[in-house]
Every structure is written in C-alpha cells, then in structure tokens.
Amino acid sequence: MTDKIKKQDLSLASRLSVAPMMEWTDRHCRAFHRQLSSQALLYTEMVTTGAVIHGDREHLLGFSEPEHPIACQLGGSEPQDMAEAARIVEGFGYDEVNINVGCPSDRVQSGRFGACLMREPETVAACVEAMKAAISVPVTVKCRIGVDDQNPEEALDRMADAAFGAGADALWVHARKAWLQGLSPKENRDVPPLDYDRVLRLKARLPEKFIGLNGGLETLDQAEPYLETLDGVMFGRAAYHTPQILGEVDRRLYGQDTADVTPWQAVRAHMSYLDEQLGKGVKLARMTRHMLGLFHGRPGARTWRRILTVEAIKPGAGLEVVERALAAVSPSGAELAAAE
C-alpha cells in the first residue's frame, strides 16, 4: 500500500485498534496479528523522538507492507523534535502518528513525556500543532483520564480541548488514572479503577470528535456495545494474550462478508512470513513468542506453548518446530474443515 490511507478510511480502521505495548507490539507481533484481521489498526511500540532522530531508524521503524493500516506512537514533549520525528515516521510510510500521554514509567517521567503530560495540556497542544504543520497523515493522542490527585472531569476535558484545539484527529483514552508515584507501570494497568463512563461523558460533550476507548477490554462481546456511542475500541493485553479474538473482528466490527479466521488458518498464513524472516537471520523465538496465546482455552494449548517456548530457542530452530506445535493442537471437525 504505497498511497497514504485516506483519513476517512483510517477512521474506519480505528474501530478496532491493537494498543502500542512496549516489548510486545514489534513488527513480528504486528505481522502475526495481521493474519487474523485485515482491517484493524495496528500500533508500534512507543519510540522516543531522540531514538527516531538519532538512532537506527530501520530497526526502530521498519515494517512490512501487509501491516497497513499502521500507526507509530512517539514519546516526547519538545514540539520541534516531535515534528522532526513525525516527518521521519511519515517518510517510512506510516498511516498515523500518535503522541504518548499515558505511559507512567519512571524513565518516561524523567524524560518529561508520557502520562506526566496530563499536567501540561498546553505542551501536548504545541506538539500536535507542530506535527500537524510538518506531516500530512493524522496526528492522534493517547492519554489517561488523569494522574495522581487530578480531578478526571477537569483533567480529561483540558487535555481533550487542548489536543483537539491544536488539530488532533483523534483522542484515545485509557480509562484509568495513572499514579506516577507509588505504583509500578504494571500496577498502573490494573490497580486504578476503570471509569468508562468518564469517556462516554467526554464523547457526549464532543460528539463530532473521534474518541476511542482503551483499558481493560477483554472480549468483543464486552467492547462492541461501546461502538454504539464511541468511535473506536482499543485492545491491549487481550489482543496479545488471546489473539484469536482478532479473528472475528473483520466480520463483527467491520461488516466484512467473510468467515472468521481460525487459529489454524492464521498459523498457516503466517508460515511464509516466518520463513522469510528466518532467511534474514531472525531467530524463530523472536517471532513465535507472539503466538503463544493463540490456542488459549483449547485442547493442546499447553503443549503448543511448551513446544514453542522450549524448542524455538534452540540453535537452528525452523518451521518444523511450528509444525510440531501445530500438530499438538487438535481442531474440532468444524474447525478443521474451516482451516482447509
């Protein structure tokens, strides 16, 4: 896909997004997720402006064409650097650039970006404005409902008004506070209570703006009703640990006249990618670690995980390991017929 995706098409793609997740949503994860859904918007891991400007850009930003539609999340707070990094990202062919205003880690805080920017909506606005002037693809923001002792009503409204006032194309809201002191990044994903109603109130106040929901969504049955009001839903850990839910997305959320993608179909379709990457010297375990949860809850799932975990790390491990793991997972008659 060499032409940029039109904004209205990207808005449709954003009905379901897979969240940016550090050390998880690398290019191999995204390539695998694309086998399950041809429509969902996929995000990179967060990359910092300094890394993009001064680092190994191909390593940080490289991706394969089938990953479209794809968005890159940037971490930073200096408008000039954000604009320069955004230009580089656009040059690589990304369909969207997103600003991280949600990560609570100490490293991110020390760099004055991520969730701590909830206290600086004017800084986020300046970044959005600079990036909008520098690139033609959509610029979006992913934030929390507040940090620490902030009032979520005031904090989220201020952030939304600042971001949209500067021209942001969408706001994704992780519907929890972030506690910058006292909770680890992992605890910040679970301990602060979810407040989906706060996001719904924001949408009611800004009905013409794209507002997406993130945080704690685990199933399509849970997430789908929110699309009656909101513009998009974003899966994080659920998409990673139980990726088979993505196999229903094209039919259920995008109205595609297509059968759901079974786990067996996804693995078979992914074999050519694995083979290509193995030929480039990529270790099998770097790719198959993203596939471990595919058969969660099905007979043979534990053996599938064990084979991929133990065998894929051995020197010279190749597609035969995946074939052996796949043979351990027995589909039902109906699923077997669908996979053929």
Report on this model:
The protein is an alpha/beta fold and 340 residues long. The chain folds into two domains: 7-252, Aldolase class I (TIM Barrel), CATH 3.20.20.70; 263-339. The protein is built from 18 helices and eight strands. It has helices spanning 7-13, 27-36, 49-54, 57-61, 79-91, 106-110, 121-134, 152-165, 185-188, 196-205, 220-223, 237-241, 249-252, 263-279, 284-288, 301-311, 319-327, 333-339; strands at residues 16-18, 41-48, 70-75, 96-101, 139-147, 170-178, 211-214, 232-235. It has an eight-stranded parallel beta barrel, surrounded by six helices. Strand 7 (211-214), helix 11 and strand 8 form a beta-alpha-beta unit. Helix 2 runs antiparallel to helix 14 and helix 5 (79-91) crosses helix 7 (121-134). It starts with 6 loop residues before the first helix and ends with a helix. The model is unreliable at 336-340 (pLDDT under 50).
Shape descriptor: globular
Figure out the total of helices: 18
Mean pLDDT across the residues is 93
CATH topology of the largest domain: TIM Barrel
Q: Based on helices, strands and strand pairing, what is the structural class?
A: alpha/beta
Q: Strand tally, please?
A: 8
Oligomer: single chain
Q: Report how far the terminal alpha carbons are from each other.
A: 28 Å
